[in-house]
Each structure stands twice: as C-alpha cells, then as structure tokens.
Write a structure and sequence with these properties.
alpha/beta; about 500 residues; six-stranded mixed beta sheet; globular; 2 domains
C-alpha cells in the first residue's frame, strides 16, 4: 500500500509594527486554495507546493490536499483567520485516517493576535492530535524566526538558501527526499536549533554579492559532508517583529536521534552569525541622493533602479509611502516609472474617469500619512487594467497575480502604476501590467528590498537602495518600539 502524505501551506511574514491586520480577506486577496484547487494553482510553478506534488508522483505517495494560504506581509494575523486556516489543517490531519507524513509549506515568521508563534502553535496542535509517530516536515523562508517550539515539534525543517528566493522548488524537493528516506526506514531525523543575542544578521540573508551569508552557507556545505547531517539551514530572521524569539538562527537536521554533534554544529554556525553581525553589502541612500544620481545616469535600455527599502510590502510595508515618488516628480525626472503604489481609491477614480483623462488625485499616503502625506497633483491616465498576470521571472515563476483594478497615471515625466492590492515588485510584469515596458525607461522605482534583483539586476545599469526612515521596514531598527524582544539584544542594546 502506498504512503499517504498530507500537504498544506500556511504562510505569513508578520510585521508587528503594521496597523494593517491580516484577516481572511487578506489571504483570499493573494493565495487561498482548498482541496483540488491546490494542484491547479501550483502545478508547474517555482513553488514549494509544486515540489510536494511532484514528489508524491515520483515516490508513488497518495497526496491528501488540504489548504494552501498565503497573504502579503502586513500586521498580525487575526484570530479568526488563524483558527480558520490552522483549524482546517489540524482537522484534515485528524480525520484523514492512516497518515505516514505531513508536508507543510510555512514561512516561519507568523505572529498572530493570540500567539507570538503561529507556526509553532500549529505544529504543537498537530502533535497533540497525532502524537510523535507521524513524520512532520516543513519548508521555511530564509527569513524565518525559528522558535524552540518549531524545532521541537517538526522532525524536519529546511529553509531557502537564496535571497532573492529563487530556490523554493529546489528546497522543497530536497525536503521530500529526506522524507522519502525516512519513510523507507533508512534514517531517523531530528531538528537542532541555535540562536544568538541578535535580531538581525548575515547581511539580512543576501546572496547576490560576496558577504557573510555566502560565507556561512559555504561553512554549512562543508558541515553537510559530516556523517548523519541531512540538512542545514541559515535563517537571517525577520527583524520587524516584536516577539521574544525574533532573530537569526542556525538549524541542523541530523540522523539518529539525540546527538550532541549536531547541536554543536548549530551553535558554531550561530556564533559565526554573531561574529559577522556588522557586515553588510548594501549602502542605503536618501531619496534626494538616489534621485539625483538616477537623473544623471539613467537611460533607456540600461535604467537605474531605485528600491524603496523602507516601504517594502514584502516585509509588511504599506506600499503607499510617498517620499521617493515625490522626490522623483520634484526632481523633474523624465521617462521614469514606479510600480506599484498601493492606492485603490485613486485606481478606482481613474477607471471611472477613463483612459486619457486628466484628473486631480491624492496619490498614496493614505494608510498612515505620518510616513509621507499624499501627493496632491494633476495626473493623466495612460493605462487601465484588471491587474491580472502571471509571473515570468525566477521568483514564483508561473504563479498567477491579481493586483485588483490597476491604473497607470503620468505626473510630469513619471508614470506610476496604482494598484488595489499590495504586492512587492519582484517581476518585470508588475510594470507591464501597467502598460510599461521596463527596458524602455531611464529610471525604474520599485517597492522592494532585495527580491527585485532577480528580475531587474540583469537590466539595470545601477541599483540604488533608498531608506531615509520613510516606512515601517526601515533598516534603522532603533526607531521601532520593541516591547517583547529578549534583552539585551543587538543592535538595540549592544555593539
């Protein structure tokens, strides 16, 4: 009889400093698939769920499809959303009859209204229902805040190794093979965790330039040659989360039950994260400095790309702060474009006015104007769309995106794609859905920290990262009001 494997996904990267709650509507606005919908949505994509499905075919396992849900990073997950989605997973596992394993696609940085540790709580509930006899494996984001509860209740935890995250499928496929060996009785995995006194490190996980993350990954590869080592994950953590166990971790999955060798490996890697905490490969610039350089250097075919680090919706940013856009307009940039700025009100007004209309708009700054007031301006509508497309680039390749009613407006020499839903720009189609071909612009502005590099670095003549504290994903963590984090901790208290 073939093995029966339950598959589920429940992801969120929670910025606890956001005032935008993550409710069921937020999940349904991005990814929310149940039962057979899962295979239709994810098959053939560069995602973990796709690898889980392919792994079941490869090994002859029967997949039990439950739910796959993901919401754009924002504030705490509401109790209703959590209990609805987690409840479906736990109930499905409890009612599935004989199960051999559970494959979970998690993020690792979910915070809820009623628990600091969304993933750990889910894993704990599964163990309470199923006991220790069922194998539980989970994939995690490189920016997971891995907790003691997660390591205790999951037999296998494996995280991405690239940032931008282009290895999601590969990591899940690797996880599947560890599960296959376990189900065949060849190995007995156990997870080991180590964490130091810091809430950010290893250059925030960047793997696009020589630096501490690539160095520690090389060390991990050497350690993987040791007998019994099944997987090693270096998690940069997600620092915009006020919780006790926030921060970078090292996770080792070893074979054979309790073995102090694996715990020692995790501690050695964690120590290296601490030793390299000051090193970074990115220089942050003010909007004025970045815009001036872009104006001088940008040209069609080789645009300068401006990344609005402090308002990255991929880290919970509101995606509507106006500092960078205002600077672009006031500097008189020509042949410049930004995508996307979250402003459903303005997008709707443009759809009413129609293509070619000129109207008065208050662009952006609506979620929390303390991070930049709306821009009051005359704008001309240059493109209208339903905001739907499929990703072509390395991250999430093949996955469908629905930005909601979308409008492109031109203010001076700057075109702005206005969306009805918040998305980080990690694919050139975020511009094309707004009628803009990125290669034809002299300057491109994106709301992103790092993921944009996968799609835009091959095109850009230069990349400038903008951060002047104009958003809730600013790198200046001391400006945030941490209350629950363990103390003392770097960089809040120590050097």
């Amino acid at each position: 009889m073939g093995k029966r494997v339950l598959i589920a996904g429940f992801k969120h990267e929670t910025n606890t400093f956001s005032i935008m709650p993550t409710d069921l509507a937020a999940y349904r606005a991005r990814d929310y698939h149940v039962g057979d919908e899962i295979a239709k949505a994810y098959s053939g994509t560069n995602t973990e769920i796709a690898a889980f499905l392919d792994g079941c075919k490869k090994h002859g396992w029967e997949p039990i499809l439950t739910i796959a849900a993901d919401a754009t990073p924002s504030g705490k997950v509401t109790r209703e959303a959590y209990e609805t989605i987690a409840g479906q997973i736990v109930d499905a596992a409890a009612g599935a009859g004989k199960l051999d394993a559970i494959l979970l696609n998690l993020h690792g940085a979910m915070v809820c209204e009623h628990t600091f540790d969304g993933e750990g709580t889910l894993l704990e509930r599964l163990r309470a229902k199923l006991g220790r006899s069922i194998l539980i494996a989970a994939t995690l984001d490189l920016h997971a805040n891995v907790t003691a509860a997660m390591a205790k209740h999951a037999d296998i935890l494996v995280s991405y190794r690239t940032y931008p995250h282009i290895d999601m499928y590969d990591i899940a496929a690797e996880t599947v093979e560890i599960v296959a060996q376990t189900l065949a009785g060849k190995i007995k995995p156990k997870t080991y965790l180590a964490q130091g006194p810091l809430i950010t490190g290893v250059d925030e996980g960047r793997t696009t330039a020589p630096g501490p993350m690539l160095e520690i990954l090389a060390k991990a590869e050497e350690l993987k040659k040791e007998p019994g080592v099944l997987a090693i994950s270096i998690n940069a953590g997600f620092p915009w989360a006020d919780l006790p166990e926030v921060g970078p971790t090292a996770v080792v999955v070893g074979d054979g039950g309790d073995d102090p060798r694996f715990a020692k490996m995790a501690e050695e890697l964690s120590a290296y994260i601490w030793e390299t905490r000051h090193r970074t490969t990115v220089q942050h610039r003010s909007a004025a400095e970045a815009v001036a350089r872009a104006k001088a250097k940008g040209r069609p075919g080789a645009p300068v790309v401006l990344a609005d680090f402090a308002d990255n919706p991929g880290g919970g940013g509101y995606c509507d702060t106006t500092g960078l856009l205002r600077g672009m307009i006031e500097a008189g940039l020509e042949n410049a474009a930004m995508s996307a700025l979250y402003d459903p009100e303005s997008a709707a007004a443009c759809h009413v006015a129609g293509l070619g209309a000129t109207l008065t708009l208050r662009i952006g700054g609506k979620v929390d104007s303390s991070y930049g007031a709306p821009i009051d301006t005359q704008a001309t509508v240059t493109h209208l769309s339903d905001g739907k497309f499929r990703i072509e680039g390395p991250i999430f390749r093949g996955l469908a995106v629905d930005m909601g009613p979308t409008a492109t407006v031109k203010v001076g020499g700057v075109e702005v794609v206005l969306s009805s839903r918040r998305f980080q720009n990690y694919d050139r189609n975020f511009f094309r859905v707004g009628g803009i071909e990125p290669s034809e612009r002299a300057v491109l502005a994106v709301k992103s920290m790092q993921h944009f590099r996968a799609a835009y670095a091959p095109l850009a003549s230069e990349i400038l990262v903008v951060d002047e504290g104009g958003g809730i994903t600013s790198h200046d963590l001391k400006k945030l009001a941490f209350k629950h984090v363990r103390r003392p901790v770097w960089p809040l208290d120590t050097n």
